[in-house]
Amino acid sequence: MDWREGAKKRAALEAVKHVQEGFIIGLGSGTTVAHAVQEIGEKVRLEGLRVLGIPTSHQILKLAVNCGIPLTTLDEHPQLDLTIDGADQVDGKLNLIKGMGGALMREKIVASATKQLVIVVDETKLVEKLGVNQPVPVEVLPFASSIVMTKIRELKGKPVLREGKNKVGPVMTDNGNFILDVNFEAVDDPGELDVKLRLIPGVLETGLFVGMTDVVYAGGRTGVQKLLRE
Ligand code: 5RP
Question: Distance between CA 204 and CA 65 in Å, rounded?
Fold first, then answer.
């Protein structure tokens, strides 16, 4: 296992310590959260922990099912106790860029409905300023993608339609939409940019998660940093 994989796992195991009996848990997406889902599954199978999970992607739904975690829906449980998710960048105020796994829309919906949002990353994801060497993923309605790209250029962003790997043409999200990866070089005011982007008709959600995170666990080569929102 390379050090980053070990770091991701250590961070994920710290996050799982927030899980309590009877919790409704939002299950984010990505390779770091996968470690947390596996650990929760072990507790369900071996310790009889009773929790219900709400997955944010097909990736995590399948993993949760394989791990034996019982699932529920936002219709049955509109308020979650805890959500554990990954991130692509985390700044000093615990604002995030998310969505390189393409699950940003469901992730933000679940994060908005949770009492506590715990983010798990390896420490390479900690940055001073969001958007440096990292595009902002934006989920868009396919019908509107061309005009959304034009309007994003007016905001000084450089949008690229995300292309599939081992599939020709654009990536389709779990919601049947496209993703634009938008390079802004640096994001000075993530809250303002999030609002401006979401005001463009055809933009469904952005990967800017502002003021939502409660705790970040950032795994390093040996330990795990715990960062709390001020
Ligand atoms: C998916 C996400 C992921 O949480 C994010 O891309 C981090 O993934 P990983 O833990 O694999 O680095 O936002 O939409």
Answer: 28
> Are residues 177 and 122 in contact, defined by beta-carbon separation less than 8 angstroms?
no
Per this entry, what is the length of the chain? 230
Which CATH number is associated with domain 136-207? Answer: 3.30.70.260
**pLDDT digit string (tens) for 23-79?**
999 999 999 999 999 999 999 999 999 999 999 999 999 999 999 999 999 999 999
Among 5, 42, 76, 107, the one annotated catalytic: 107
Structure tokens at 217: 């666990």
On whether the pTM is more than 0.85, the answer is yes
Instruction: Quote the ligand 1 centre to 34 CA distance (angstroms).
Output: 10
230 is catalytic: no
CATH number of 3-127+210-223: 3.40.50.1360
Cβ-Cβ contacts under 8 Å for 101 (sequence gap 6 or more): 29, 30, 57, 59, 86
The angle formed by the CA atoms of residues 128, 136 and 63, to the nearest 5 degrees, is 100
Note whether 3-127+210-223 and 136-207 share their fold. no
Ligand 1 site residues (CB inside 6 A) read: 28-32, 85-88, 98-104, 107
CA 200 to each of CA 153, 182, 193: distance values in angstroms, whole numbers, following the listed order: 12, 14, 11
For residue 108, give the H/E element and its range.
Answer: helix 104-112
